Amino acid sequence: MKKARLFIILLLCCAAPAFADFNPFTQKRIVIGSFKNNGDPQYDYLGLILENSIYEYALFIPFLTLTDRERASLLGIAGDEKYAAAYEEAGGRLGFRLLPVVERGEADAAVAPGSVFIGGGYEVSQDEAVILSIEAIHGTDKSTYAHHEAASSLYDIVYRPETYLVDFFKKFLRYKTHLVRFIVEPEDSLLFIDGTLLGIGSKEGVLLTPGAHRVRVSKNGFKSFDHLVQVREDRITIHAALQREETKEPFFFPVSQDGARIYAGARYLGTSPDSVTVSESDRTVTFIKEGYINRTVTVKEIEEKPAYEIPLLSGEMKTSVIEQALRHKNGSETLYYTGLGMTGLSILFGIGKTAYQQQADLYKSSNEARHSESLQAADTLGYLTAASVTVTAGVFIFAFIEMLKYFDLYYEGQYDLIRGEVRF
Fold first, then answer.
1. Average of pLDDT values for 324-331?
2. Which pLDDT score is estimated for 4?
3. Is 222 exposed, middle or buried (0-12, 13-18, 19+ CB in 10 A)?
4. Contact 222, 241 (CB under 8 A)
5. R_g (Cα) of the chain, nearest Å
6. How many angstroms separate the Cα of 399 from the Cα of each of 80, 84, 241, 389, 418?
């Protein structure tokens, strides 16, 4: 952690971003300046460390509030021709919250309205105790914005800046914040707060506003921690221990052609017939070989049926599969419509049987000959109805069988070939 902290400090030494399009009605410029060494010159390096620590902290300020005095001052310049365009860009209004713009520089860089300069001084005693003074002043009238005095150790100044910066920033922010400690495992995980990268590993002294905050911790090879955390009190600890992603044991994919490249998504796994390893997050596996049709199958399908062979088909074989599918599809449709016709015929036979049966009932007492003829006709139509129903059922069964043969091609892994080519 010491090395990581020093590395971040060195990076910040080289960073001095400039913000040309500063709008005092929507933003507040925070200029981080130098710290004067009031003691032994051998500790001059602490000035840069203090400057960088404050700069690093300031980068994560979500917003800054305005006092009534500050609002009145800004509204007073809104009508100035110099600031009219900026005020119009802000929608012609001034709220109570401004977004921070953090820069590096000296006090003369913070003279514009809405700017604050942070600087100070320090002195190291013989026992390596550090007396520190941090001063934030308004850029325009040089009045005090926030002031903090602290006694710290040389070790804390370098490696635990939160011990002296938390109290200063609580005054500087002017609104309620809670002190939060993040313990992250593994220590080289990335820590994000509300979508902003806070750093690498555990963090002490993070100031957050009360309410809900999205906390995400991630590292390659581990399941991410991503939760909405409620911050309701001061000095809470949030522990995020990542669980390593489980990997499956290597297993062999039976493939009909050797030399096929195997991919899980865009990740290359190997070449058949070698065994490969898929992770828990892998859902599909794709097989690719020149001159053959690409195949994609689900990992779950392979696991449930380990003897399942994935065929890689050439163009000719694809044509054959499509022809088979078309034949079964057409056969199923022909039998289906034949069955519908037979169903209609069965209904007609049934209606005729019923009509003759009713006619026989009418002639039962008045005309014996007509009664007998009607009964015979009704019986004949009854036999025809039964035969027609039987044939209809058989036709539908054969239509269903043809449809099953069509879908068998899907179960055999041909669905990606015939999909879009032959459809019911």
1. 81
2. 46
3. middle
4. no
5. 41
6. 85, 80, 58, 15, 19
260, pLDDT greater than 60 = yes
Neighbour-count burial of 143, counting CB atoms closer than 10 A to its CB (0-12 exposed, 13-18 middle, 19+ buried)? exposed
423 within domain boundaries: no
258 and 379 belong to one structural domain: no
Amino acid in the structure at residue 379 = D
- Is 424 domain-assigned? no
Q: Would you state the pLDDT for residue 169?
A: 92
CA dist., res. 210 & res. 232, Å (int): 6
Per-residue confidence at 249, pLDDT binned at 50, 70, 90?
low
Task: Tell me: do 170 and 51 sit in the same domain.
Answer: yes
Among residues 174, 169, 175, which one has the least CA distance to residue 58?
Answer: 169
Pairing of strands 27-37, 115-124: parallel
Q: What is the structure's pLDDT at 147?
A: 94
Q: Is residue 294 part of a domain?
A: yes
Q: pLDDT class for 312, splitting at 50, 70, 90?
A: confident
| Number of neighbours of residue 348 by Cβ within 10 angstroms | 14
Residue 13 has pLDDT above 50, yes or no: no
Number of domains in the chain: 4
The two structure tokens encoding residue 125:
């005693």
What is the domain range of residue 66? 2-175
Helix (H, G, I), strand (E, B) or coil at 2: helix
User: Cα separation of 378 and 359, whole Å?
Assistant: 9
H helix or E strand, kind and range, residue 71: helix 68-77
- Cis check: omega of the bond before 273, within 30 degrees of 0: yes
